[in-house]
């Protein structure tokens, strides 16, 4: 039996609030489908060490966020172009940026 999934817009709001609770902030770069949209997260700390995270299935059946791309500090434009292409290709997908020293801690808990 498949578990009910938290609507995407509520998960986004929760992640942003949790980032604020850690002293950081979050912003929606692109709104996706309100209830069933996929989340793509960008984590950064003052514009440095930016990473792109996507939810991937694990062997135990959970779906945890996995870093799928990191910004090259010598060529940040390449990363930005990749994100822009992804946004254009997938309009139902939410793109959310979380900025703060500890925001990646929010992605460590697997979900089903």
Gist of the model:
This protein is α+β, with helices and mostly antiparallel strands and 112 residues long. Helix content is 25%, strand content 33%.
Describe this structure in words.
The protein has helices spanning 8-21, 76-89, and strands at 25-30, 39-45, 48-57, 63-70, 94-99. The chain has a 5-stranded mixed β-sheet with strand order 1-5-2-3-4, with helices on both faces. It is built from 2 helices and 5 strands, in the order H-E-E-E-E-H-E. It is globular. A hairpin with a 2-residue loop joins strand 2 and strand 3. The protein has 112 residues and is of the alpha+beta class. The protein has one domain (26-107): 3-Layer(aba) Sandwich (hypothetical protein tt1805), CATH 3.40.1530. The N and C termini lie close together (12 Å).
Please report the total strand number as a whole number: 5
| Helix/sheet category | alpha+beta
**Main sheet attributes: strand count, strand direction, barrel closure:** 5 strands, mixed
User: What value does the Rg take, in angstroms?
Assistant: 14 Å
Which CATH-level-2 architecture?
A: 3-Layer(aba) Sandwich
Low-confidence stretches: none
Within the largest sheet, what's the order of strands?
Answer: 1-5-2-3-4
Q: How far is it from the N-terminal to the C-terminal residue, by CA?
A: 12 Å
H/E element order: HEEEEHE
Helix content: 25-40%
CATH class: Alpha Beta
Mean pLDDT: 90
What's the CATH superfamily, by name? Protein of unknown function (DUF1491)
Shape: globular
Number of domains: 1
Strand content: 25-35%
How many helices in DSSP terms? Answer: 2
CATH topology: hypothetical protein tt1805
């Amino acid at each position: 039996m498949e578990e009910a999934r938290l609507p995407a817009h509520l998960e986004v709001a929760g992640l942003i609030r949790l980032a604020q609770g850690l002293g950081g902030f979050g912003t929606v770069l692109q709104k996706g489908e309100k209830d069933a949209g996929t989340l793509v997260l960008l984590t950064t700390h003052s514009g440095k060490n930016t990473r792109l995270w996507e939810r991937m299935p694990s062997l135990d059946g959970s779906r945890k966020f996995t870093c799928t791309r990191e910004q090259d500090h010598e060529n940040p434009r390449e990363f930005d172009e990749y994100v822009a292409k992804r946004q254009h290709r997938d309009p139902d997908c939410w793109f959310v940026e979380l900025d703060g020293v500890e925001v990646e801690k929010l992605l460590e808990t697997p979900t089903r």
